[in-house]
């Protein structure tokens, strides 16, 4: 700030804010994507449930990819969703969307967008919720039901 205080700080000049000890990403998301935002040639973003899997071409190119692209293709040796990738790699969801679209265009990822009618079906959502509740937490305890 102009008066020497840090945003969210205690008001004393040079006093760190509440997140002073938190790790800060070395590279900002807009740098990873060169300022591009999520969107495909059709102008729509990939839904979070879009499944991606590495192609043989992608796995062969691992050594020539950027860090983030390498991590995405390596993680996609088994199919997973855009949301799972973002969580697993600790990357912003839109960064994963942009890079996944780049990798798809280059033939390094196969992308399978689910049928929108099925994703808006309430019974599918109920099964997803039930499946998530069936996963034990870190202590091995199942979550309560409704």
In a nutshell, what does this entry contain?
It contains seven helices and three strands.
Structural description of this entry:
There is one protein chain. Helix content is about 40%, strand content about 5%. It is mainly alpha-helical and about 150 residues long. The protein is globular, with a radius of gyration of 20 Å.
Helix content: 25-40%
**Number of DSSP strands?**
3
Q: Outline the low-pLDDT stretches.
A: 1-11
Biggest sheet layout:
3 strands, antiparallel
Radius of gyration: 20 Å
Average predicted local confidence, pLDDT: 75
State which percent range the strand residues make up: 5-15%
Secondary-structure-based class equals mainly alpha
Q: Which strands sit side by side, in order, in the main sheet?
A: 2-1-3
Looking at how many chains there are and whether they match, the oligomeric state comes to single chain
Topology pattern, helix = H, strand = E: HEHHEHHEHH
Number of helices: 7
Shape: globular
Distance between the termini: 47 Å
Secondary-structure blueprint of this entry?
Layout: H1 29-32, E1 51-54, H2 56-60, H3 67-75, E2 80-81, H4 82-89, H5 93-105, E3 109-112, H6 116-119, H7 122-133
Antiparallel strand pairs: 1-2, 1-3
Helix pairs in contact: 3-5, 4-5
What would the keywords be for this entry?
3 strands, three-stranded antiparallel β-sheet, 7 helices, about 150 residues, about 5% strand, mainly alpha
